[in-house]
Amino acid sequence: MTFFAAAALAAVTWYPAPDWVDQPDPVASVHAKKGGRIRFNGASAPESNNAYIDTSSYTSMMFSMMYLPLISTDSETLEFTPCVAKKWAVSDDWNEYTFVIDERATWSDGRPVSALDVKWTFDAIMDRKSNSGPYKTMLGGFESPEILDADSDRPLTVKFRKKGSTPRNWRDLMHCGTFWILPRHAFEGKDFNKLDFLGSPAGGPYMISKVDENVETVYSRVKTWWRKDLPSCRHVYNFDEIVMRYYAENENGFFALMKNMIDVYPVYSARLWVQSANGKAYDRNWILKRRVTNHEPVGYQGFAMNMRNFPFDDVRVRKAMAKLVDRVMMNRTMMYNEYFMQNSFYGDLYDEEHPCPNELVLFDSEGAAELLKEAGFSKNPETGVLEKDGRPFVFKFLTREQNNDKFLVHFKTALENLGIKMHIERKDFTSWMKDMDDFNFQMTWSAMGASIFRNPEIFWLSSEADRKTSGNYTGFRSEEVDRIIAAEKSMMTVAERNAAYREIDRLVSAEHPYAFLWNISAKRLIYWNKFGMPDTILSRYSNEEAVLSYWWFDADKDEELRDAQKRNAFLPKVPVEVDFDKKFKKAK
Questions:
Q1: Which of 217, 262, 221 is nearest to 65 (CA)?
Q2: Considering only Cβ atoms within 10 Å of each terminal Cβ, which end of the chain, N or C, has fewer?
Q3: Residue 405: Cβ within 10 Å count
Q4: How many CB atoms lie within 10 A of CB 302?
Q5: What distance in Å separates the CA atoms of residue 355 and residue 245, rounded to the nearest whole number?
Q6: d(Cα 115, Cα 148) in Å, to the nearest integer?
Q7: Does the structure show a pLDDT above 90 at 419?
Q8: Is the pLDDT of residue 5 over 50?
Q9: What angle, rounded to 10 degrees, do the helices at 405-417 and 327-334 form?
């Protein structure tokens, strides 16, 4: 039954469905063993281990292993599933959300989790003194939650109400149901911005057991974790210790792995992957290289054009710019052919069943010249510069990184060959961001990440085009896209929303607000050959965080590695390329 059908039958609709049963994680290996430790590249040292204060990706990754939300998402379907809450209800007007906490839920110190913890966490986040800005935004549409069974010795039921009357939006359930719940009894009365998590009770599978500031943080497995015996939690969270080692420069983590100071290093540099990750340890398979292709959401990057003003207010001009970026050559000569050419804002949503309809625009100087001619540009015989109605085609490219110059010089040459002048204006990040917030640019290099739960409103809603500090940098407007965005808010299934995103992608891409560049759809990992792991290496939608959830320390492999190093011997070879779909299908 769909959400809409169910909601029409009652004042509230309870989830999950009555026939829902917790299932084993299909990626987790039954061969996984508990024990051992893993030393992981933690990038730069966090300002705080509190992910409500420090919102970096690795801080959030580890915080989610210490504290749990009311509801979670299925690793395969991405539909919401029980977590701290065993069930939840949504009112027929989508303005109220009620959660009932699982009676089995406890903190690592044995104290029971209650609705009081939920309310305290919400209020602490929303306290004006708390530096929890992004989460204030996420939860700001709700009143402070109400405990419905406040007279109980252990209150378990909590209700969230939306403020005022706002349109239906499936994200409301996500916002009030997926923030991390903290133990009130441990942190009440303390400065939320300076909470000390060392030895503090946790609600997840790990807790902090050691902190060496700016060097490492050690997370120890909670062996009494209340969810450990649930089918979905078997054969996961296997390491007794996770050591996050910090390096001011990310590349230092690579050299730390070579010195056996860490065990796993996610590689984000094509140069490191191709040129540096080789030698004796790799040849003998003591260190392994794996490139995993799965369905983790892929962001996009390209040259963003300000469509509000001349000369980029004409789609033919914008498409011509895309035809003057020789990205295939740049990928081949400067990035070791490690990247694919983008033609989509939501590239990970396409597959054999849903092929991408967008045109793949590649370098074509003659085609660009023809488009510019159609747009009314002609060369001034005296200056050699293209003009339209007496206005020369001269623009500024706003950049914030000197490393981009090696790419921009090729683009600039291609422009000059057609009579277009581009001036490079370099600013620091703060100044660049201010110009972007004020839409004070003509063209810039922009890169956007992606998440499992997308929000196209931020980037493509017409009303955002003129709102300063919005994410609609290019000034994109489309009534048709606006209608889809409005409808998407009422789509409760992932399949419905993905279909809407693909249609938005088709419409936006056809307007060429960006001259697309390149991206990578695979996760590159190098690691010492002493771990067991699922055949898929990672899960369907994950990045390197899945290493900490699904891998395990293999004592036999560790002994074989040590022996091979002593004898200067070879270990068995494994394939570098791993296709999640093929491995998952074979495993099933």
A1: 221
A2: C
A3: 12
A4: 24
A5: 41
A6: 9
A7: yes
A8: no
A9: 140
Cβ contact 142:126 at 8 Å: no
Greatest CA separation for the chain? 87
Q: How many residues does the chain have?
A: 588
Q: In what side-by-side order are the strands of the sheet with 37-41? A: 206-212, 216-221, 241-245, 37-41, 264-267, 522-528, 287-293, 577-579
Secondary structure of residue 297 in the 3-state scheme = coil
Hey, how many other C-beta atoms are within 10 angstroms of the C-beta on 8? 10
Token match 């078997």: residue?
234
Mean pLDDT for 357-383 is 97
Q: Give dist(CA 70, CA 374) in Å, integer.
A: 56
The answer on pLDDT for 3 being more than 60 is no
pLDDT in tens, 492-524: 889 999 999 999 999 999 999 999 999 998 999
pLDDT of residue 165: 77
The pLDDT score that the predictor gives to residue 8 is 38
Q: What are phi and psi of 309, to 5 degrees?
A: -135, 165
In angstroms, the Cα distances linking 215 to 63, 96, 260, 476 are 18, 45, 16, 45
Q: For residues 136 and 125, what is the distance between their CA atoms, to the nearest angstrom?
A: 6
Cα(277)–Cα(254) distance, integer angstroms: 9
Spell out the residues 6+ positions from residue 329 whose beta carbon is closer than 8 angstroms to its own.
363, 410
Residue type, 498: N
492: closest CA among 453, 461, 459?
A: 453
Spell out the domains of the chain, with CATH numbers in brackets: 3-30+42-192 (3.90.76.10), 247-295+524-587 (no CATH), 300-519 (3.10.105.10)
Peptide bond into 231 cis (omega under 30): no
Q: Compute how many other C-beta atoms are within 10 angstroms of the C-beta atom of residue 100.
A: 19
- Nearest of 557, 503, 484 to residue 527 by alpha carbon: 557
* pLDDT tens string 136-176: 989 999 999 999 999 999 999 999 999 987 788 999 999 99
578 DSSP β-pair partners: 292
